[in-house]
Amino acid sequence: MDERLRLKEKVQHGSAVFPINVYEKIFVHENNTLLPHWHDEFEIVYLEKGTASFRVDGKEYFLGPKQFLFVNCGSIHGGKAEDNPEPYAIVFSLSMLFSEGPDICKSKYLQSVSERKLLVQNSFEDEHTRELISNIITVWKEKPKGYELLVKGYLFVIFYYLFNKRYVTASSTDRELDLKLEKIKSALDFINSNYSSDIDIDLLAKLANLSKFYFCRLFKEITHLTPVDYINKFRVEKAIELIKNTNLSISEIAFEVGFNNVSYFIKVFKEYVGVTPFKYKKNVLC
After folding, report:
1. Is the Cβ–Cβ distance between 153 and 90 less than 8 Å?
2. Quick check: is 10 in a domain?
3. Domain span at 230
4. What percent of the chain has pLDDT over 70?
5. E strand residue ranges, 28-139
6. What span, in angstroms and rounded, lies between the C-alpha atoms of 219 and 81?
7. DSSP state of 171
8. Which residue ranges does the record assign to the HTH araC/xylS-type domain (predicted)?
């Protein structure tokens, strides 16, 4: 199973003593998408080449070669490959930049970003910032002796420029957005934990403390998918993992990921992947 980003991720990014990882395969290969998800870590997306579109907290961004995107802690984000992109996602806990004792860098700057009291502007053009991000990726790939020091150094300099050039703003103006995000996060977390069971949209709306109509409208506003489409796509991704990594039959996989009708599973799988699960399995085994 690969290490793609998931919803509220339960995977460890890096290690406990160096909580950072650089991901190269962020899109699901079968349909070139990254389903909306969220995590507590900060993220920097960078495109070395090609193009891709991303959605962060309901807003759309288009990245071309050598462009980047900042994803704040706790933001709901997803994307789609457009034209053969070479993407990278630098995902890290801001705590790796904190000192154990009294620390002005933590108290005055970084902790507020970690807690979403301050938000980094998602997209902007800045050559120096781009170069620093590219340097992190290069160092990560090459891993020279002492590379951890250099990676942390680059991150500190990036945040220096973000604050110095006023790309960081108070989140008070986005309080309404944060309330909306929390409601959708509760639904995403429930889907993540219960995708193999029947999921009732009425229950998701109840968890979000919203009417069914407003919940569905808000869910699509934030994720650009209906709740049903999202659940189906999430289940298909889980089915792909099972096809690749188990010997279960297609019928067994359908029930394992929450489809109670095999014909419907086959239909949804083909719409999402482009081939039936039987053909996909055959291609995987070849």
Report:
1. no
2. no
3. 175-285
4. 94
5. 33-37, 42-47, 51-56, 59-63, 67-71, 77-83, 87-92, 118-120
6. 22
7. G
8. 185-283
Same domain assignment for residues 253 and 190: yes
> For the chain, what's the residue count?
286
CA gap 197, 91 in Å, rounded: 30
- Mean pLDDT for the stretch of residues 91-102: 94
Q: Residues 90-95: what's their mean pLDDT? A: 97
Domain count, the chain: 2
Token pair belonging to 164: 């110095």
Written as six digits, the tokens of 112 are: 């507020």
Residue 202 lies in a domain: yes
Mark residue 144 as left, alpha or beta (left: phi above 0; alpha: psi -120 to 50; beta: remaining).
beta
Q: State the amino acid at position 286 in one-letter form.
A: C
Question: Residue 2 and residue 126: Cα distance in Å, rounded?
Answer: 32
- 131 and 152 in a single domain? The answer is yes
